[in-house]
Every structure is written in structure tokens, then in C-alpha cells.
Write a structure and sequence with these properties.
Distance between the termini: 56 Å
Radius of gyration: 23 Å
Strand order of the largest sheet: 2-1-3-4-5
Structural class: alpha/beta
CATH architecture of the largest domain: 3-Layer(aba) Sandwich
Number of helices: 11
CATH topology of the largest domain: Rossmann fold
CATH class of the largest domain: Alpha Beta
Length: about 250
């Protein structure tokens, strides 16, 4: 007999139970606080890596690619703002959410952090349950953003693949393929060239982000740059331009 799930079963809770544990990076120079917060978050099911200051945090962020960074503000060598600036200008970590731990009442610091791109603040001392609730809230919000972006990125993927195939066939079979226009003098960064190649292969933003180990937001940024540099306004036009001018394989 198949068991009937309870009527009050929480679909969101079931989804979270099936989702891989969020990977957190905790950056704080106070050993006692760092150990206590790590233990509490791990008890709540998170995978936690720790760092002793902003420089250590930066190195580990690049190695671990965490889902969320929790960082103290005032630290030696590199403070929370320095770490945040490094992350926001990095291709792979630019979209990673960051929560700051800060002294209570530091309104000016909170304003500076929000302007720099921090996602949330938790004043010290904090209640562990509030910390967990805020961490989960930021992780869920990031998941929703990625899911929504992926939904739009994957729209009409079949149609896009068909169009690319038709363009390739047309150019290959064209009578004047041998006299195709000269390759324009365009300057692409290595990452832009990689994105262009993958777009021409029919991959959508979510798949490109996965292959290049970056965020969907960054892929969208590169595609927009390619539109500007090539004078195109759609993925189909971009692929046609790239194939005509032998910019991709």
C-alpha cells in the first residue's frame, strides 16, 4: 500500500530537503565567534568553510565558489568592504550574495555596504535563529532569481537551435560562401569569445553559466556586450554575424 503524505505537508520544505546543502563561507577574525557560528550553521544543515580575514576569505571564495558569504566588517589585512569589492568585480563571484556582520547601530556603515552591493546586515550580538532565518531567506531569494533567469533563458530553446541549424546550412550551401565578407576587426575578451562560441553552439544562458562556472547575470552581461560590439540585437542575428565572419567554429 502506498503511504499517503500528510495533508499539512509543506511542498517548499520538501523541495529544500531535496536541494543540495547551501555552501557558506564565514569570514571573521574572532576565533570564538567563528567557531560558534560555524557549529550552529552546520547543525542547521549548511556546509560551512571559514576564513580568518578578508584576504583569506577572498582566496577561499575563489577556491570554493560558495552560495553565500557571511563576513565581519572590521578585520585586519582586508576588511569586509575590501572583500565585497573584490567579489563584485570578479567574473565568477560577482553575483554571490553577501551578508555583513556589524556592530549594532552603525548606520553609516550599513548605508556604505548597501551602496557597495551587500545583500543584508546582521547586527552583533545576534540571535542564532535570526541568523539562520536571514541566511535561508537570502539563499531562497538567490534560488528564485536564478530559477526565473533560467526560465527566460531557456525560452524557445528548441526554436533557437533550429534557427542556428538553418543559418549554418544556408551559409554552408550558399553559392557565394567563398566570397563571404572579410572578418571585421573586432576585439573580444577571452570570456566574450567563449560566450560567443557557446551561443553559436545553441547553448542558452543557464548552460553557458554552468560551463564557464560563472553566474547567469554575468553571461547576460557578456551577451549584451557582444550585441553592442557586433551591432546585432538578438541571439539569431549574433549567430548569423559570427558565422558569416568566421568568428566561431
Amino acid at each position: 500500500m502506498t503511504a499517503t503524505p500528510p495533508l499539512d505537508a509543506d511542498p517548499q520544505g520538501a523541495d529544500e530537503a531535496n536541494r543540495p546543502a547551501a555552501r557558506l563561507l564565514l569570514v571573521d577574525d574572532e576565533p570564538g565567534l567563528r567557531a560558534a557560528v560555524q557549529a550552529y550553521l552546520e547543525d542547521e544543515g549548511f556546509v560551512v568553510t571559514t576564513a580568518v580575514d578578508g584576504l583569506d576569505g577572498w582566496e577561499k571564495a575563489q577556491q570554493q565558489m560558495p552560495d553565500l558569504v557571511i563576513s565581519d566588517v572590521m578585520m585586519p589585512r582586508c576588511d569586509g568592504y575590501g572583500l565585497l569589492e573584490k567579489m563584485r568585480t570578479d567574473e565568477r563571484l560577482g553575483g554571490t550574495p553577501v551578508i555583513f556582520l556589524t556592530a549594532k547601530g552603525m548606520t553609516a556603515d550599513r548605508t556604505q555596504g548597501y551602496l557597495a552591493g551587500v545583500d543584508d546586515y546582521i547586527p552583533k550580538p545576534f540571535d542564532p535563529d535570526e541568523l539562520v532565518a536571514r541566511v535561508r531567506n537570502v539563499v531562497r531569494r538567490q534560488d528564485r532569481l536564478l530559477t526565473e533567469a533560467a526560465r527566460f533563458a531557456d525560452a524557445d530553446v528548441g526554436q533557437m537551435a533550429k534557427q542556428i541549424s538553418e543559418i549554418r546550412s544556408m551559409l554552408t550551401g550558399s553559392a557565394d560562401a567563398a566570397s563571404s565578407p572579410e572578418t571585421p576587426q573586432l576585439s573580444f575578451t577571452p570570456r566574450e569569445a567563449s560566450v560567443l562560441q557557446l551561443v553559436a553552439e545553441g547553448l542558452m544562458n543557464k548552460e553557458i553559466a554552468r560551463q564557464l562556472e560563472t553566474s547567469i547575470r554575468n553571461v547576460e552581461k557578456y551577451v549584451s556586450r557582444l550585441f553592442i560590439k557586433t551591432g546585432t540585437s538578438s541571439r539569431t542575428e549574433l549567430v548569423r554575424f559570427a558565422l558569416q565572419h568566421h568568428l566561431v567554429d
